[in-house]
Automatic annotation (TrEMBL):
<feature type="domain" description="Pyridine nucleotide-disulphide oxidoreductase dimerisation">
    <location>
        <begin position="349"/>
        <end position="447"/>
    </location>
</feature>
<protein>
    <submittedName>
        <fullName>FAD-dependent pyridine nucleotide-disulfide oxidoreductase</fullName>
    </submittedName>
</protein>
<dbReference type="InterPro" id="IPR036188">
    <property type="entry name" value="FAD/NAD-bd_sf"/>
</dbReference>
<feature type="domain" description="FAD/NAD(P)-binding">
    <location>
        <begin position="4"/>
        <end position="296"/>
    </location>
</feature>
<dbReference type="InterPro" id="IPR050260">
    <property type="entry name" value="FAD-bd_OxRdtase"/>
</dbReference>
<keyword id="KW-0676">Redox-active center</keyword>
<dbReference type="InterPro" id="IPR004099">
    <property type="entry name" value="Pyr_nucl-diS_OxRdtase_dimer"/>
</dbReference>
<keyword id="KW-0285">Flavoprotein</keyword>
<dbReference type="InterPro" id="IPR023753">
    <property type="entry name" value="FAD/NAD-binding_dom"/>
</dbReference>
<comment type="similarity">
    <text>Belongs to the class-III pyridine nucleotide-disulfide oxidoreductase family.</text>
</comment>
<dbReference type="Pfam" id="PF07992">
    <property type="entry name" value="Pyr_redox_2"/>
</dbReference>
<dbReference type="InterPro" id="IPR016156">
    <property type="entry name" value="FAD/NAD-linked_Rdtase_dimer_sf"/>
</dbReference>
<dbReference type="InterPro" id="IPR036873">
    <property type="entry name" value="Rhodanese-like_dom_sf"/>
</dbReference>
<dbReference type="Pfam" id="PF02852">
    <property type="entry name" value="Pyr_redox_dim"/>
</dbReference>
<dbReference type="GO" id="GO:0016491">
    <property type="term" value="F:oxidoreductase activity"/>
</dbReference>
<keyword id="KW-0274">FAD</keyword>
<keyword id="KW-0560">Oxidoreductase</keyword>
Length: 575
């Protein structure tokens, strides 16, 4: 028996559900409704369209075989009816109808449904500051905004830009403006770091340094208080509490909020922060109404708590789940780890699961293993350092998260994707240590970097390794008098260590090459706590084990070593 299915929203989750449903129930009547004229596009590709990596906006709306996904495509190729420029006004759950309005003609009609899906997406948050309505101020709300931004740039109307918001979209837009177009770009972030709540501070600091090296001015702990008017209704600058930045273009990228007003007005359960509540089958509190995409609240697979994950990849997976359930094939969406990856010029940064800060805030007895191995065999010509951090719970050895920073290649995505799959299954440190990764020298080391990070975590958990937290070490470097009995034991080549010995003195910075410690350990001064330092950390750990064997247990390893420090903006680092 044929059924009528109405889907509100036609960007990601909606089209995926519609197409899946028509493959399972080709005789059913499926109608999609969207208030925009452009549908089924890759919103996450907008910064790459602005940058020029994607040459034309139609590519964001095209299939892999280069057919644009418009209303005609869905009708003729998929058998799905699409009403564009049509806004859903209200849901009558008793009559099982959706009231819609054609935005061009103003005509209204009621669409009957047997089952309804809400894929209403999200809307960008608008800063409530003076000047937010000036010409030249944009949010990345849809593809139309991106087209207008690129047109202004291509016409030579933009020479200076300010991006407000240091999340992924803000950073990607700052890169897009700077890299191809050579626009003088500033990036503002209210939080103390970029990518707040996504990565820990030291990963954000590595990213910040790289952005600055590429010409983006980054201002953290700084918010826009006013957008300045040139007297003709156009934006000419951004005022903060510390400075005024000139700008022909301002992009507000300060996050998104779920579009759940339609659901709330219909009496469906909605979280206080706006996400539509759904069960594992993505049903709302009305079993005949489903919801998916950026408008819903999802479950964290790590904490079990309600969370928000507005990503196109998740929206498509959720859409398929809804399509299955609408067709009568029970399918569940268990939740999310919160996986993230982005490029920034020549670097890549990624994460899955919880940061150390977030894990501790959730009540976990969390610690982290910070490593700095090569991203492929150390003898392979284009090998490079990748910084990995495994976050784990000491009590039960469960892995809670992984973060990575390195070159723009496939080495990071492979490890973070593997970590996401393992974390979703509740994996332990030992599971990470034993996970099998494909090996060949151009792709990885024989001991894969994800295995190596787990070995460090294992040593920490079993108290075989004592580390000094990175922040504590940096604080001591800024004020060595705070811990007068501490000293660095530099295990690198004497030529590398010599400038630091000269600057800080032989009592504070002791040079003893790794290979000489077993024969020269008697020269180490008594009464000192040694901070063991090498390039990556493994040599420091081995020396700590040896010194412990001698009864000299007053030592701490700086995990990640100079490979991490050199990627931070620290003024004492010698080139």
């Amino acid at each position: 028996m044929s059924k009528k299915i109405v889907i509100v929203g036609a960007v990601a989750a909606g089209p995926k559900a519609a197409c899946r449903l028509k493959r399972l129930r080709p005789d059913w009547e499926v109608t999609m409704v969207d208030q925009d004229s452009l549908i089924s596009y890759g919103g996450c590709g907008i910064p790459y369209y602005v940058s020029g990596d994607v040459s034309d906006e139609s590519e964001l709306r095209a299939t892999s075989f280069h057919v644009v996904r418009d209303a005609t495509f869905f009708e003729h190729s998929k058998g799905v009816r699409v009403l564009t420029q049509t806004k859903a006004l209200a849901i009558d759950r008793q009559a099982k109808t959706v009231r819609v309005e054609n935005l061009e003609t103003g005509a209204q009609q009621d669409l009957p449904y047997d089952k309804l899906m809400l894929a209403t997406g999200s809307r960008p948050f608008d800063l409530p500051i003076p000047g937010a309505d000036l010409d030249g101020v944009f949010t990345i709300a849809n593809l139309h905004k991106a087209i207008e931004i690129k047109q202004r740039i291509a016409q030579g109307k933009v020479s200076r830009a300010v991006v407000i918001g240091g999340g992924a979209i803000g950073i990607e837009m700052a890169e897009a403006l700077t890299d191809l177009w050579g626009i003088e770009t500033s990036l503002l972030e209210l939080a103390p770091q970029l990518l707040p709540r996504i990565v820990d501070w030291h990963f954000a600091a590595m990213l910040k340094k790289h952005l600055q090296e590429k010409g983006v001015a980054v201002y953290a702990r700084e918010s826009a208080t006013e957008l300045l008017n040139d007297g003709q209704g156009k934006v000419c600058g951004v005022k903060t509490g510390q400075r005024t930045l000139e700008a022909d273009l301002v992009i507000m990228a300060v996050g998104v909020r779920p579009r759940s007003e339609l659901a709330k007005a219909a009496g469906l359960d909605v979280a206080p922060w706006g996400g539509i509540k759904v069960n594992q089958r993505l049903q709302t509190s009305d079993p005949d109404i489903y919801a998916a995409g950026d408008c819903i609240a999802v479950t964290s697979l790590i904490t079990g708590r309600e969370t928000y994950a507005p990503l196109g990849s998740l929206a498509n997976r959720e859409g398929r789940v809804v399509g299955d359930n609408l067709a009568g094939y029970p399918t569940v969406f268990n939740g999310v780890c919160g996986s993230f990856i982005m490029k920034a010029f020549e670097r890549c940064i990624a994460a899955t699961g919880l940061t150390v800060e977030a894990a501790r805030a959730e009540g976990f007895d969390a610690d982290y293993a910070l490593t700095a191995p090569a991203d492929r065999a150390h003898f392979f010509p284009d090998q490079a350092v990748v910084i990995l951090q495994l976050v784990f719970e000491r009590k039960n050895r469960r892995v809670l998260g992984l973060q990575a920073f390195g070159m723009m290649n496939d080495s990071i995505s492979a490890r973070v994707d593997t970590a996401a799959a393992l974390i979703a299954k509740g994996a332990t440190i030992e599971d990470f240590g034993m996970v099998e990764m494909a090996y060949a020298p151009p792709f990885s080391s024989a001991i894969d970097s994800i295995n190596a990070a787990a070995y460090v975590a294992e040593n920490l958990c079993d108290n075989r390794l004592r580390q000094i937290e990175l922040g504590r070490f940096l604080a001591w470097m800024d004020n060595m008098a705070s811990e007068p009995d501490w000293a660095v034991l530099d295990l690198r080549h004497p030529v590398e260590a010599a400038p630091y010995v000269e600057r800080y003195g032989a009592e504070r910075w002791i040079a003893m090459e790794y290979g000489q410690v077993r024969t020269r350990h008697g020269e180490l001064p008594a009464g000192k706590t040694f901070i063991l330092l090498c390039n990556a950390g493994p040599r420091s750990y081995e020396v700590q084990v040896f010194l412990d064997h001698l009864g000299k247990s007053a030592s701490m390893v700086l995990c990640g070593g100079l490979n991490v420090i050199s990627r931070l903006d620290v003024d004492w680092l010698l080139k």
